Amino acid sequence: MRYGIFSDIHSNLEALEAVIKAYGREGIDTYFCGGDIVGYGSDLHECIEKTGQIASVIVAGNHDWAAVDQFSSDYFNSFARQALLWTKERLNPREKSFLESLKFVYENEDLTLVHGTLDNPQDFDYMLDSLTAEETFKLMQAAVCFVGHSHVPGIFIRDKHSQIHYPEELSVEVRPKHSYIVNVGSVGQPRDGDPRAAYCVYDTAKRQIQVKRVEYDAEAAREKIIRAGLPEYLGNRLLAGK
Ligand code: ZN
């Protein structure tokens, strides 16, 4: 099975289309989305529709949840809150019920999917360090858990001695008696200094996981954000990838 796992689109249609096009060359069997379809960018309707069409599973992100009043925006900075209000005004009833229907966690025999962490997924904590990773490793049934939320791709590995590693490479072989937490990064608002859209491929036959990047027209996405009356900062940060 070849899984395509992507996350944090944030209403960036240019980035989503580039990722879908790149996936077209990958021979993917099933697509999963780690949440945050909306927030920050201008193309919420198109991103909800396209993600809903392509992904057989989508878990809830904090921006999706906040947009339908199921998560407090108290934790949002002022730019995120402005984008949230902008988004809430534009969601139609069908889109709202779609976002409301998203679950926090998905599991099958190959993998687990959650936006933030497996412990208290409704709190949307960030998978930032080994201590946080440890709590999620304890709760995993499958060998691999895919997450998003931080917009920084990375792979935590727990070896057979329960030691946790965080190597620099964004490509890993899934080995027996090892567990993996893979942050797939962000399609629509990368924050690791690389402005290219991030997406992940998990090949269970080859036992290989890779986080990949693809260039997209970030300038066009930036212009749309500014034209839509969203904070200019949200457009500018796309060019820097942070
Ligand atoms: Zn996000």
Structure, described:
- The protein is an alpha/beta fold.
- It has one domain: Metallo-dependent phosphatases (Purple Acid Phosphatase, chain A, domain 2, 4-Layer Sandwich).
- It has helices at residues 13-23, 44-54, 62-67, 78-90, 93-100, 130-139, 218-227, 232-240, and strands at 2-6, 30-33, 57-58, 105-107, 111-114, 144-147, 154-158, 164-165, 171-173, 179-183, 197-203, 208-214.
- The strands form 2 sheets. Strands 3-2-1-11-12-9 form a 6-stranded mixed beta sheet.
- Helix 6 links the parallel strand 5 and strand 6.
- Helix 7 runs antiparallel to helix 8.
- The longest helix is centred in the middle third of the chain and has 13 residues, at 78-90.
- The two termini are 33 Å apart.
- The mean pLDDT is 97.
- The structure holds zinc ion (ZN).
- The site of zinc ion has 7 residues, from loops.
List the helices and strands and how they pair.
Elements: E1 2-6, H1 13-23, E2 30-33, H2 44-54, E3 57-58, H3 62-67, H4 78-90, H5 93-100, E4 105-107, E5 111-114, H6 130-139, E6 144-147, E7 154-158, E8 164-165, E9 171-173, E10 179-183, E11 197-203, E12 208-214, H7 218-227, H8 232-240
Parallel strand pairs: 1-2, 2-3, 5-6, 6-10
Antiparallel strand pairs: 1-11, 4-5, 7-8, 7-10, 9-12, 11-12
Helix pairs in contact: 7-8
Zinc ion is lined by residues 8, 10, 36, 61, 63, 149, 151.
Produce a short descriptive summary.
The protein is of the alpha/beta class and 242 residues long. It has helices at 13-23, 44-54, 62-67, 78-90, 93-100, 130-139, 218-227, 232-240; strands spanning 2-6, 30-33, 57-58, 105-107, 111-114, 144-147, 154-158, 164-165, 171-173, 179-183, 197-203, 208-214.
